[in-house]
Specification:
single chain, two-stranded antiparallel sheet, 11 helices, disordered N terminus
Length: about 325
């Protein structure tokens, strides 16, 4: 009697070509995990960095962490799955999670940066700390940013404008049934927040220019003016780097299949941006420099105290001999 063993393939298992395309992203994500760990360790150790005014920066970096967790989770699932017939609920959860969550987090990042820019404009032009004067509006902004993009994605799937595109061995994706839906998504996810950011940055720069023009006769520049200029420069540098590395993935996601080579390259650039985010933010914000300097001084003084405490005692035996005589 002949027995034929047929080895089936799990629907959740990636093909070798897909694994090879995702491997460079895996290496970048490992590096990003270290840069983010060092950044958040600094925040845990230094209470001066835990301020309400920095909530949008930290919210943005938390989306980075979720993107890293998403990638590691899906990479493990797709490279270790061996079940030929996985549970249907588990299969649908993984498929939709893979197809939706990346785009959702990218949209969050775009609008969090917009909220950060608006708050800084209010601080520059109106001299108002939004975190203190408009707490309810701030809470509403958080809820709107976190839930509205998710609701829009769910509506598009529910009415059939977006359909799950899942094939064995490949990355799960959403396939849009109309070009109008893709154009709408590009407008909402990229064009609108980008335009708003450009307008807010222009308004901030114009306000600073007008203030400096009115005070041309003064030789002394106030600390507030210097701080406002630094805020605008920080955001311009950060947003420029973001535009170069992050934005291509948002645009390509709406127009290309996730299994294409172009999408893989844009995803890699996206995760390179995640590696750089903590270093850019820490490098541009003087508060992190002061925190590092303070921690270094504390560490140095502690090491000096330890050295003095364990320094061996030197005994002069000649004095003891003289005392005995």
């Amino acid at each position: 009697m002949n027995v034929t063993n047929t080895k089936c393939r799990s629907p959740l298992s990636w093909g070798q070509s897909t694994i090879d395309s995702q491997r460079p992203i895996l290496y970048v994500c490992i590096i990003a995990s270290f840069t983010h760990a060092m950044f958040w360790l600094q925040i845990i150790c230094c209470s001066a960095l835990r301020q309400k005014t920095m909530q949008w920066i930290y919210a943005y970096l938390i989306t980075d962490i979720f993107l890293l967790v998403r990638f590691f989770f899906l990479f493990i699932v797709h490279t270790t799955s061996t079940d030929c017939q996985p549970n249907q609920s588990w299969y649908l959860f993984i498929s939709y999670f893979e197809a939706i969550f990346d785009n959702y987090l990218n949209i969050l990042g775009v609008y969090i940066l917009l909220a950060l820019n608006i708050c800084r404009y209010a601080q520059i032009a109106r001299n108002r700390n939004v975190c203190v004067t408009h707490v309810r509006l701030l809470v509403a902004a958080h809820f709107g940013i976190y839930f509205i993009p998710l609701i829009l994605l769910i509506i598009q799937i529910s009415v059939g404008w977006a359909k799950l595109d899942a094939h064995g061995g490949e990355i799960c994706d959403l396939r849009y049934t109309h070009i109008y839906v893709q154009v709408f998504n590009v407008l909402i996810a990229f064009v609108f927040p980008l335009s708003c950011n450009v307008i807010v940055i222009y308004a901030s720069v114009r306000h600073i220019h007008l203030v400096s023009h009115l005070r041309q006769g003064r030789h002394h520049v106030s600390a507030r003016e210097k701080y406002h200029r630094s805020l605008v420069i920080q955001f311009l540098v950060f947003y420029t780097i973001w535009m170069l590395l992050w934005s291509p993935n948002i645009i390509v996601y709406q127009l290309q299949n996730k299994n294409g080579k172009i999408v893989s390259i844009c995803q890699l650039l996206n995760f390179v941006e995640i590696v750089l985010d903590p270093m850019i933010i820490a490098g541009l914000d003087v508060r992190f420099f002061h925190a590092w300097k303070k921690n270094w001084e504390m560490l140095k003084s502690k090491l000096l105290r330890e050295q003095r405490r364990i320094r061996p005692m030197v005994v002069d035996h000649s004095l003891k001999i003289i005392e005995q005589h």
